[in-house]
């Protein structure tokens, strides 16, 4: 095992990345050739008449661009136990479940060893660049990671979230040890059946190893914020467990209790030190560096739908840098953060040309939507990504919109802009998730003046009566006056600056925006709903725009509305 640690060579990984990105077009052709040769026997590819050809030109001429919907008949045959080569040459034995927060229900996506290898290539690349800027020694990571429930499909395949598929892979622990990123929590905590009990024990493990923790991480920023919001509620109980050396009765899972009993010994000195740190803080500012004095940074995906959590994260982080993780999806990885010193708001991701074959549909040229190759994209332009991966997805429209910010050698550096499907739209208006986030931030500043904050938010388009209107759901941290909330509602309405929206509002083709205030804990109920569907917390994203088919989430939001306000901004 120690040999694995010595094997990781930061300079070598960076050199390999530099080499691969110098001639990204050649590497892309080779990658496509490898994927098509490995899967030449797949029924799907054979039916499209490629006849063994592996060049990009033939591939694009024969293979159509698809979404998940078109592939579902093939995927469901695999799920039901058909072991013939359907999408891939080798049988698929495992499925990944997407988080399901976009469409309301999880999607099944094929997973195989080759996807695990691409995950490790991304991890190693970003770790090498990160470690060059922020060196860590052989300490531990306080990682808020959670395995999801494993489902068995009708045909006997394992199905769990993509992150859980990574954590469960045979080489994962060794790889993390090699990357000096060992989680300080035992497996029983990571794979525990009860989220709150696992979270509590993650925090406890972090405190036990507080001097050794070199960074704090999770898959998504949301999980880190959620963890330290929880810490504010349970810190005295944690101190008590450390002082007595006995785990709280609230943790009832036998396997977790057994694993924790091996770590927990009475330590009044540590309990007193933590107690002193917590009581000395002003409104929990700088909590993380106070608890973990040797932490170098906080790490996780912090872009896209995670940006709204940055303000709270910075509050907990104090002076510690926030480093955003890499760019990928349940369908596969795309790009690594090779400029870790950039704040998350300015982060870009360099595409690894050897982990998949990538095409880009230009968003502006509506007549010419012919996708471009990896090296043909232009700086400043927005594109939708089309991915071909080693696990049976060919010319798959990912539904992500990215902007090309520059190039690293000949591979593009991308900024995630939005999901292409997440639009608030009634008339000629087109508001994206980013537009919603900016509106919430603007109105949130009014709350901040009263020492309040938006805990979480979502939205829907209400077409139940004419004209349709936007509904924004807010959960806030305390009590606000009616006047203030009405002001916030008007501010939200005015902050959507899309010309189609403002002109439609002025002529009443879109009705007054409605702010609905929900009870404290409503967004926790939504999280619980997704956990019940098999989503792992580490893969969870709050649904920012709830579509009409997502009935259960709409029901949870509606049942918890305590007040609503209609905008008078355009009266």
UniProtKB/TrEMBL annotation:
Alphabetic keyword roster: Ligase
InterPro entries linked to this entry: GH3 (IPR004993), GH3_C (IPR055378), GH3_M (IPR055377)
Entry GO terms, CC: cytoplasm
Record's keyword annotation contains Nuclease: no
Gene Ontology molecular function terms on file: acid-amino acid ligase activity
Segments forming domain GH3 middle: 349-419
Protein family per UniProt: Belongs to the IAA-amido conjugating enzyme family.
GH3 C-terminal domain boundaries: 434-546
Protein's name according to its UniProt entry: Jasmonic acid-amido synthetase JAR1
Any Pfam family: GH3_C
Superkingdom field: Eukaryota
């Amino acid at each position: 095992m120690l040999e694995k640690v010595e094997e990781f060579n930061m300079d070598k990984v960076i050199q390999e990345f530099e080499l691969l990105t110098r001639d990204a077009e050649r590497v892309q052709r080779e990658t496509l050739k490898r994927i098509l040769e490995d899967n030449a026997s797949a029924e799907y590819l054979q039916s499209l008449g490629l006849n063994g050809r592996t060049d990009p030109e033939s591939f694009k001429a024969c293979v159509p661009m698809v979404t998940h919907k078109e592939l579902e008949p093939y995927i469901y045959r695999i799920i039901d136990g058909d072991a013939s080569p359907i999408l891939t040459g080798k049988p698929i034995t495992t499925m990944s479940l997407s988080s399901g927060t976009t469409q309301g229900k999880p999607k099944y996506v094929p997973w195989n060893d080759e996807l695990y290898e691409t995950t490790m290539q991304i991890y190693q690349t970003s770790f090498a660049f990160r470690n060059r800027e922020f060196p860590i020694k052989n300490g531990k990571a306080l990682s808020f990671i959670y395995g999801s429930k494993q489902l068995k499909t009708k045909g006997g395949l394992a199905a769990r979230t993509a992150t859980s598929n990574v954590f469960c892979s045979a080489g994962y622990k060794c790889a993390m040890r090699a990357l000096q990123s060992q989680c300080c929590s035992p497996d029983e905590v990571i794979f525990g059946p009860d989220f709150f009990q696992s979270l509590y024990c993650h925090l406890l493990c972090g405190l036990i190893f507080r001097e050794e923790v070199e960074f704090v991480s999770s898959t998504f920023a949301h999980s880190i914020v959620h963890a330290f919001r929880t810490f504010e509620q349970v810190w005295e109980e944690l101190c008590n467990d450390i002082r007595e050396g006995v785990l709280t009765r609230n943790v009832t899972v036998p396997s977790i209790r057994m694993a924790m009993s091996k770590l927990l010994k009475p330590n009044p000195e540590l309990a007193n030190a933590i107690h002193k740190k917590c009581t000395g803080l002003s409104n929990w500012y700088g909590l993380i560096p106070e608890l973990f004095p040797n932490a170098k940074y906080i790490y996780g995906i912090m872009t896209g739908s995670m940006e709204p959590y940055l303000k709270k994260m910075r509050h907990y982080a104090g002076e510690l840098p926030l480093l955003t993780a890499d760019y990928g999806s349940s369908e596969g990885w795309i790009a690594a953060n090779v400029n870790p010193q950039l704040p998350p708001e300015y982060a870009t991701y360099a595409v690894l040309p050897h982990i998949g074959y990538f095409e880009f549909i230009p968003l502006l040229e509506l007549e010419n939507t012919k996708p471009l190759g990896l090296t043909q994209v232009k700086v400043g332009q927005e594109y939708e990504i089309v991915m071909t991966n080693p696990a049976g997805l060919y010319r798959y429209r990912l539904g992500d919109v990215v902007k090309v910010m520059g190039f690293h050698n000949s591979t593009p550096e991308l900024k995630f802009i939005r999901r292409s499907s997440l639009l608030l739209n009634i008339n000629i208006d087109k508001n994206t998730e980013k537009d919603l986030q900016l509106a919430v931030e603007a109105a949130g500043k009014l709350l901040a003046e009263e020492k309040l904050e938006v805990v979480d938010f979502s939205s829907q388009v209400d077409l139940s009566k004419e004209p349709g209107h936007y509904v924004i759901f807010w959960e806030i941290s305390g009590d606000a006056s009616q006047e203030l909330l009405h002001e916030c509602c008007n501010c939200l309405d005015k902050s959507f600056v899309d010309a189609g929206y403002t002109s439609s509002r002025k002529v009443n083709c879109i009705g007054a925006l409605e702010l609905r205030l929900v009870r404290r804990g409503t967004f926790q109920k939504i999280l619980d709903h997704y956990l019940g569907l098999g989503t792992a917390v580490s893969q969870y994203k709050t649904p920012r725009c709830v579509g009409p088919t997502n009935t259960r989430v709409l029901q949870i939001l509606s049942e918890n509305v305590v007040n609503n306000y209609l905008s008078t901004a355009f009266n």
